[in-house]
């Protein structure tokens, strides 16, 4: 990962091999950067996972002179333990005593149970959202998806394939949701082993309870899912203005390095690119909203437009997530959408995303778009 050069960092230290092929992602894509533990400052580390698609989540680690702070945990216990194994040398001298969850999506907190005896911190809004989806539900969807993709006459085989492949690398069995025991609102500062760490609430945006974490001494920011790099962002909560404000806050911090929730280590230009994405789709989708297109129709029309195909966003992973973003923006604009309640509504959004994904055979990750 030589795209960021600052003070001799980042420095790759150790990483896993996927079936003996270190150059492949969990979804079998060519890795755009090397997986594993990077030193990104004197005390700051990040476990980086290419290419940043579903569950390919980056994890932060701060060595605070005899104690460590972990930023986020993985979607399942196996991958969380893999991070701990990779960081074993650091953790031997500085065991993890604090965990910070940047938000309540499972791929950032479902490994919490391994730290149930530690201090786990998040925003109050994140704590309230911790049980919005249960691991058992995703395990059932994973199994159900395998069945549905074998039943083309149901017209749900594409949805089944999409969901089964999304969850294929992960094992949601035996996960017990473990809530943070300490919540905050707006801003919280902690000092661990003499190292100041600043937590800033920036949600609702990506989810209801987003936060970013900044280490002033290192000038390193851990952005959670406010920032995606090389992967299409998704807005589950909104409004989008909060996401853009959070991205501008990241720039105002003038960090030396930014660890995004997904994708490679970030430069300010990557933050600016994501602001451009949100501004682009707002403009394009609003034109179609005024023409009474549905969110799905508008999302399809944008993705197949010449303007989108000529943009850098067309090369980002999972462009079909624009469907969910369109639904969020339509709600902001006052549209009365007929949506299913609760979890059924989320599944219907994923069904619509799957439909668009199958219309984009060249999009990545490829396995999500290929019935074979």
The gist of it:
The protein is α/β, with parallel strands linked by helices and 372 residues long. The chain has eleven helices and 13 strands.
From the structure above, extract its key features:
33% helix; 8-stranded mixed beta sheet; 11 helices; 372 residues; 13 strands
General description of the model:
The chain has 11 helices and 13 strands. The protein is an alpha/beta fold and 372 residues long. Strands 1-2-3-4-5-6-7-8 form an 8-stranded mixed β-sheet. Strands 9-10-11-12-13 form a 5-stranded mixed β-sheet, with helices on one face.
Estimated structural class: alpha/beta
What is the average of the pLDDT values? Answer: 92
- The portion of residues forming beta strands comes to 15-25%
Largest sheet: 8 strands, mixed
H/E series, N to C? EEEEEHHEEHHHEEEEEHEHHHHH
The strand count comes to 13
The parts where pLDDT drops under 50 for at least 5 residues are none
Residue share in helices? 25-40%
User: What is the strand arrangement across the widest sheet?
Assistant: 1-2-3-4-5-6-7-8
Shape: globular
Number of helices: 11
Alpha-carbon Rg, integer = 20 Å
Q: End-to-end span in angstroms?
A: 32 Å
């Amino acid at each position: 990962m030589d795209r960021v050069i600052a003070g001799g960092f980042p420095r790759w230290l150790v990483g896993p091999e996927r079936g003996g092929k270190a150059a492949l992602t969990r979804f079998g894509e060519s890795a755009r950067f090397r997986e594993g533990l990077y030193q990104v400052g004197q005390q700051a580390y990040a476990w980086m996972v290419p290419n940043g698609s579903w569950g390919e989540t980056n994890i932060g680690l701060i060595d605070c002179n005899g104690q460590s702070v972990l930023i986020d945990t993985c979607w399942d216990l196996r991958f969380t333990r893999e991070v701990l194994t990779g960081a074993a040398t650091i953790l031997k001298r500085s065991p993890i005593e604090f965990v910070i969850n940047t938000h309540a999506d499972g791929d950032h907190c479902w490994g919490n149970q391994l730290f149930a005896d530690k201090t786990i911190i998040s925003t109050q809004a994140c704590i309230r959202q911790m049980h919005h989806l249960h691991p058992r539900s995703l395990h059932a969807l994973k199994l159900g998806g395998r069945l549905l993709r074998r039943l083309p006459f149901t017209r749900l085989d594409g949805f089944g394939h999409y969901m089964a492949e999304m969850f294929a690398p992960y094992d949601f069995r035996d996960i017990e949701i473990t809530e943070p025991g300490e919540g905050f609102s707006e801003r919280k500062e902690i000092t661990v082993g003499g190292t100041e760490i600043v937590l800033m609430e920036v949600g609702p945006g990506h989810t209801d309870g987003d936060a970013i974490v900044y280490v002033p001494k290192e000038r390193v920011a851990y952005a959670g899912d406010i920032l995606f790099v090389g992967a299409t962002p998704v807005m589950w909560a909104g409004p989008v203005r909060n996401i853009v404000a959070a991205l501008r806050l990241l720039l105002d911090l003038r960090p030396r390095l930014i660890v995004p929730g997904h994708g490679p280590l970030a430069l300010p230009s990557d933050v600016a690119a994501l602001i451009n994405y949100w501004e682009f789709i707002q403009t394009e989708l609003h034109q179609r909203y005024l023409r009474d297109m549905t969110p799905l129709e508008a999302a399809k029309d944008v993705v197949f437009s010449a303007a989108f195909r000529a943009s850098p966003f067309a090369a980002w992973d999972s462009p079909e997530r624009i469907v969910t973003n369109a639904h969020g923006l339509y709600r902001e604009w006052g549209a009365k959408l007929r949506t299913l309640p609760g979890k059924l509504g989320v599944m219907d959004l994923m069904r619509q995303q799957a439909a668009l994904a199958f219309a984009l055979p060249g999009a990545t990750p490829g396995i999500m778009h290929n019935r074979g």
